[in-house]
Amino acid sequence: MATKSNAAQLRSWIASYPEGIAWNVELDTRPVHEQVLAACAKTPSAIALDFLGGTTTFGDLASKIIAFAGALQRQFGIKKGSRVALMLPNTPFYPIAYYAVLRAGGIVVNCNPLYTVRELGHIAANAGADVMVTLDLQQIFEKAEKLVQASHIKSLVVCHFPDALPLAKKILFLIVKRKDLANLGASPVADRISHFHDMVTRGEPPTAVVIDAKTDIAVQQYTGGTTGLPKGAQLTHANIAANMSQIDKWGCGIFYPPSKVVAVLPFFHIFAMTVCMNVPLCNGTQVVMLPRFELKALLNLLTRTRANILPAVPTLLNAIARADGATTAQLASLEVVISGGAALPNEVRTAFAIKSKAVLAEGYGLTEAGPVVCCAALRVASKPMSIGLPLPSTDICFVNLETGKPVAIGENGELQVKGAQVMLGYYNDPEATEQAFMDGWLRTGDIGHMDDDGYVFLVDRIKDLIICSGFNVYPRTIEEALMTHTAVEETNVIGVPDDYRGEAPIAFVKLRDGQVVTADELKTFLSERISKIEMPREIIFKDALPKTLIGKLSKKELREEYAQSKTAP
After folding, report:
1. Coil, strand, or helix at residue 201?
2. 62 lies in the same domain as 131
């Protein structure tokens, strides 16, 4: 009988590794702040960060990290184990604060600025973060202000947004958009506010902190909360560094200068934190940032910087592929595009390939694994529709949901993971931690299989599986079929209660501009591509489909919306 141990020992994927990549490698698990400061010392005059044309050298980055770390220690008593919340969009302030917290011995608690105050309050309270670093943009600051008023946060460190801009843009912002800035002096929590600029300017050197990379927590990353309140995944310094090392080895030098990595995905999300920030900066590679995704701004950035690596989510790639204004010439600098965060529809892959000759590699990961587990090759073509192969020093296994035993090659089961990047567990939640592991393997909650060559294919999330008349129906199968229709721009499928079948699929569709098609026409189209049991009970057209805060299509909101529509009088 197959066991997880001998399933891992077989490691059939190794034979399919691209030339020059080995599975059994020694990983660099030095704390990430040590690695980035070493990179800064190696090339202090090189540009580390580009934000809307304003640049920060590696030498500048190091001096600000060190100064802010010292100020955090002296002013707030930050020490090993202290949790510091970061509520910042992509700006130079984020990497400075992130590495400074780690250098001071603290634990980074990422907070999404687009979360509600209630969600942010849960994270801050659960983590026990007394200090939050944020921005003086009114839209963000007012949430931080409310967190202090509710006693979830004791002190705020506020960064002055215009300081991140190049001089001409700073002056223009202060003239035209001053109203977007919060009046900190008039804030009811003004006595709890410290200014980032003042703290860095003091130039106080930090005291030494001894870090045990294997046991000391670096980042407490809260999951999206799709199944209840967000949980804090505890990632050690070694977890973070190991995944960086695995990605670095998988990249075969792509993350080294003179490469430039686009950071349009938010650093507070673990995909961007690792792939857009930690990996390139620790290799001395420039990161070019946007505070949020806007197609025109991204295309202008590519034209100006000639950046060659773009980590993205499928909805972003779909927007580029479908936009008439996005030309092949504007995308010409791209060599590698890494799609993550959600399944990449084949239709999007095909459409993007018409616009760009870059290698489009789909990757896969989850917060609890630091995050990357599998990835398609970054230098050569990989199998279509596959999420690639397990990264070096990563073991995976597909397990039968009922028996807990490994399944045969080609048979669907739950993907489980072992590796140096896997978290210690959830913060103050032993029950959830126990449920997250099976026999020491991390349960991903994703269903899929491995083929004879070791390539991994995912079918769907366990929680998204629809049971129709006893048959397994995977939303992704229906979504892939719908996406092949020329009128469909985006689609999302959920399962809903059904008196006859138990559950039934419902498809939500956003049409491309100028396109018209009826639900019946789409069902006729689908009848040749999916089975009767998979046919959606309803097809609902929407002007826009809800997305998560990093741009993934959200089933959670659709389920809530559909349930409310059925209970409304």
Report:
1. helix
2. yes
275 and 381 fall within a common domain: yes
- pLDDT for position 226: 40
Residue with tokens 């939050």: 132
Q: Which CATH number belongs to the domain containing residue 534 in this structure?
A: 3.30.300.30
Residue at 215 is within a domain: no
166 and 54 Cβ atoms separated by less than 8 Å: yes
Residue 130, CA distances (Å) to 145, 182, 362, 428, 544 in order: 13, 21, 38, 17, 38
In a domain, 439, yes or no: yes
- On whether residue 151 sits in a domain, the answer given is yes
Torsion 35-36-38-42 (CA) sign: positive
The Cα–Cα gap between 100 and 471 comes to 52
Distances (CA, A) of 12 to 24, 216, 380, 397, 440: 13, 34, 19, 11, 21
On whether the CB atoms of residues 362 and 388 are closer than 8 A, the answer is yes
Q: Model-level pTM greater than 0.85?
A: yes
Residue 464 is classified by DSSP as G
The pLDDT value recorded for residue 225 is: 46
**Amino acid (1-letter code) at residue 247:** I
Q: Are 480 and 459 in contact (CB under 8 A)?
A: no
Cβ neighbours of residue 364 closer than 8 Å, sequence gap 6 or more? 340, 372, 373, 374, 375, 387, 388, 446, 456, 458
Determine the Cα–Cα distance for residues 105 and 93; give it in Å rounded to an integer. Answer: 18
| pLDDT tens-digit readout, 290-341 | 999 999 999 999 999 999 999 998 889 999 998 988 999 999 999 999 999 8
Owning domain of residue 480: 465-567
Are 484 and 347 a contacting pair, CB within 8 Å? Answer: yes
Buried b (16+ CB within 10 A) or exposed e, 337-350: bbbbbbbbbebbbe
Per the structure block, which two tokens stand in for 228? 């209840």
pLDDT tens figures, 463-515: 888 888 777 788 888 998 999 999 999 999 999 988 777 889 999 999 999 99
Give me the pLDDT at residue 2, please.
46
Q: Which CATH number characterizes residue 143's domain? A: 3.40.50.12780
Specify whether the CB–CB gap between 254 and 335 falls below 8 A: yes
Q: From start to end of 462-515, where are the E strands? A: 466-468, 471-473, 488-498, 502-511
Tokens linked to 381? 């073509």
360 with 415, same domain: the answer is yes
279 and 337 co-located in one domain: yes
Low-confidence ranges of the chain (pLDDT < 70): 1-9, 224-228, 549, 568-569
Q: What is the DSSP letter of 101?
A: H
The amino acid that residue 317 corresponds to is L
Cβ-contact 87, 134 below 8 angstroms: yes
Same domain, 411 and 321: yes
Q: What is residue 310's DSSP assignment?
A: E
- Annotate 428-459 with b (16+ C-beta within 10 A) or e (fewer): ebeebbeebbeeebbbbbbbbbbeeebbbebb
Look at residues 158, 192, 210 and tell me which one is the last residue of a structural domain: 210
